[in-house]
Amino acid sequence: MTPDFTLDHSFKSYPFNAAPCRASELAGKGWNLLADDLPFPLAVIHRSALLHNVAWMQDYARRKGVALAPHGKTTMSPQLFQMQLAGGAWGMSFATLYQVAVGVEAGARRIIIANQVVCDADFDALATLLARHPDLRVWFLVDSVAQLTLIEDWASRRAATTPFDVLLEMGIPGQRTGCRTLAQALHLAQKMVASRAVRFGGIECYEGGVATCESAHDVREVTALVHRVTEVVKACDQQNLFEGNELLITAGGSAVFDLVIPLLRLHDMQRPLLGVLRSGCYITHDHGNYARFLRLVEQREGLDASLRPALEVWAMVQSVPEPGLALLTCGRRDVSYDLEMPLPQRHAARASRQVNAVPADWKISALNDQHAYLRFDPAGLIPQVGDRVSLGISHPCTTFDKWRWLPLVEDDGAITGAVATRF
Predict the structure, then answer these.
(1) With contact defined as beta carbons under 8 Å apart, do 103 and 92 qualify?
(2) Hey, what CATH class is 71-279 in?
């Protein structure tokens, strides 16, 4: 997996006394997660689940007749971007120009910035990237005439002659960015068509903000959004406002991505339509928030199984100071906690490579910067100092950004590679 990179003890949880090595050389080290060859805490990605998820999501998009542009902000890992692109992704999605630059470096040549761009420095950066890479195509979001005016002002001051590709964003009242009404959207679309600074190529929306993990509610609310956005797409198409040879329609987070497929497969357009799904967290999935949403996707789609959790954080039991409480060697610096506490998954006794599921009563009740509070029933299995415990996560984005590297591990715990992150 490329690009390769060098690891040394300046990377958290790389062995202090080990010589620096390339990520591609890790397989030859003979290190194993369960042999305590690396210090804990340690965030790892299970290779088999990772490969399964990349293939599953690409196949899902193919079966639905849509393109896939995974959201790279989830992992910010060039190695994982390359895996997704090699697996068949049409392109990548990002939220900032910094992220775009990392994606371009990794080889992405079709990029959706699922966000507004408003800063001179970012316009400058985008213009430079496009000039350096003639095969690069980047679309970003516009949701107001005020933003369009900023773009035009920049273009005038820089004497720019090449328009930026843009997508009109439709939003949801009470939620984040995006036009709220058909009238507002049409007014903006007409202004963009009249502008020399942009090229109006399609429509974007994000449905995840209305999802509550209650299927009837989610179906109703996302379907209503799909209808609103469809109305805008068809009105713009009827007025011949779209520019270019292909109409780009894009949506799709990682929670209810199945519900926006009808929007991405609209028919009877004057131009060929490309529907692009932007899910990002699928690549490692999780054990909490997205796992719950995915069970509903599976029910709606009639699937027996789909994605697998690939990311977990291993920690050691460092203290059992009182009955029912153990302290683990990880905390807010190491694992996500923005949606819910980490979820104990597996347990390996000290010096053993035998891994078992944790008892159902084991829970993480709180985190400090470097400690996790593991609560357990004193009448059941009691964790011992030196034991290892794996923690599942809820929302992978905010675990990835705590690590500069993550080992790739096989099902037997062997460490055979690594990915880097660029947050």
Answers:
(1) yes
(2) alpha beta
